[in-house]
């Protein structure tokens, strides 16, 4: 398993749980504008992001909740590398609807919300 990104949650915005209930998690590196921090999981990278973007079949884990990546938008990984930002949609879509989106297999929303806490690890690994 090749780790493409290993990052630690530093803060969770007050509106994150509402979005996660619908299967959407927005990541933003520490230092994001306050209006974005409200809906974002703020994080600080420990490893990566790598030059190589994840592909279909790669994995994403948020704490103990893991899913297979099903689609990667054309600009998603460049945004991760530039500003630590990406929208993760646990909808199982075969194609990303938005260019900055990574889609992954559906997960249990209650388990996902429980894992979205300060100190949690988020790991994206190649297939």
Unreliable segments (pLDDT under 50, ≥5 consecutive)?
none
Look at the helices and sheets and give the structural class.
alpha+beta
Physical arrangement of strands within the biggest beta sheet: 1-3-2-6-7-5-4-8
**Could you name the CATH class?**
Mainly Beta
Query: How many independent structural domains?
Result: 1
Number of strands: 8
Whole-number average pLDDT? 96
CATH superfamily: Phosphotransferase system, glucitol/sorbitol-specific IIA component
Description:
The chain has about 130 residues and is α+β, with helices and mostly antiparallel strands. The chain has one domain (about 5-125): Phosphotransferase system, glucitol/sorbitol-specific IIA component (M1 Pyruvate Kinase, Domain 3), CATH 2.40.33.40. It has helices at about 15-20, 35, 75-85, 110-115, and strands spanning about 5-10, 25-30, 40-45, 60, 65-70, 85-90, 100-105, 120-125. Strands 1-3-2-6-7-5-4-8 form an eight-stranded mixed barrel. The radius of gyration is 13 Å and the shape is globular.
Give a topology summary.
Layout: E1 3-12, H1 16-21, E2 24-29, H2 34-37, E3 41-47, E4 59-62, E5 65-72, H3 76-83, E6 86-89, E7 101-104, H4 109-115, E8 121-125
Parallel strand pairs: 2-3, 6-7
Antiparallel strand pairs: 1-3, 1-8, 2-6, 4-5, 4-8, 5-7
């Amino acid at each position: 398993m090749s780790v493409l990104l290993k990052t630690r949650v530093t803060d969770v915005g007050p509106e994150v749980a509402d979005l996660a209930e619908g299967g959407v998690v927005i990541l933003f590196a520490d230092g994001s504008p306050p209006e974005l921090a409200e809906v974002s999981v703020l994080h600080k990278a420990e490893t990566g992001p790598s030059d190589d973007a994840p592909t279909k079949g790669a994995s994403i884990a948020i704490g103990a909740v893991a899913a297979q990546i099903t689609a990667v938008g054309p600009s998603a990984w460049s945004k991760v590398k530039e500003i630590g930002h990406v929208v993760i949609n646990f909808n199982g879509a075969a194609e990303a609807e938005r260019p900055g989106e990574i889609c992954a297999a559906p997960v249990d929303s209650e388990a996902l919300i429980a894992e979205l806490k300060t100190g949690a690890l988020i790991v994206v690994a190649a297939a």
